[in-house]
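Archive maintenance. Older records in this collection stored only the sequence; we are now back-filling the structure field for every entry so that each record is complete. The fields below show one back-filled record exactly as it appears after the update. Entries are processed alphabetically, and Mov34/MPN/PAD-1 family protein is next in the queue.

ARCHIVE ENTRY
Title: Mov34/MPN/PAD-1 family protein
Organism field: Halorubellus litoreus
Length field: 173
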Amino acid sequence: MGLFDRFFRSRNVAGIARDTLEFALSSAEDTHPNEYMGFMRGTPAREFDLGEEIHPDDYVVTDVLVIPGTTSNEMSATVDNNMIPNDMRTVGSIHSHPNGVLRPSDADLATFTSGSVHVIMGAPYRTSDWRAFDQEGEPATLPVLDVDLDDPEAFFDFDQYDIDDELRSGDTY
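Back-filled structure field:
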């Protein structure tokens, strides 16, 4: 099992939080004309009041994790694999195409092998300027959900004890 295989686990993704999508679009616009790159993290749907249509074990994309040391230019973004944490909640990737093309490139397809959903955003980064894809690069449905998210600073409020406790619990976030 490789690093990416441990980092990404196939999960059913019910949707993406509106605030998370808006954050990613804004970040991509701020990075323009260079590519933006991040990893999408999910929270179990049972954490939100989403009704019976969504299975409680499905995930809602609630965070975008930008890896330190990521470099980008107008044609690509490169992640330093040594900096990727073993985050059990990662469900896929999100990146921008500054040229506005909302289709995966051959290079994108090579990175789509891990995770269950991948998002490409394109200039000018409006709420309609993105598409979701599955591992094979086929269009995927990713509804935008209105959910209340925790304080983003809470993401950083953990220590090694919390990590060890999550691993011991066998929870497969």
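Update note: Strands lie at 13-17, 37-44, 59-65, 71-72, 77-78, 90-97, 117-122, 130-133, 139-140, 144-145. The chain has a mean pLDDT of 84.
Entry marked complete.
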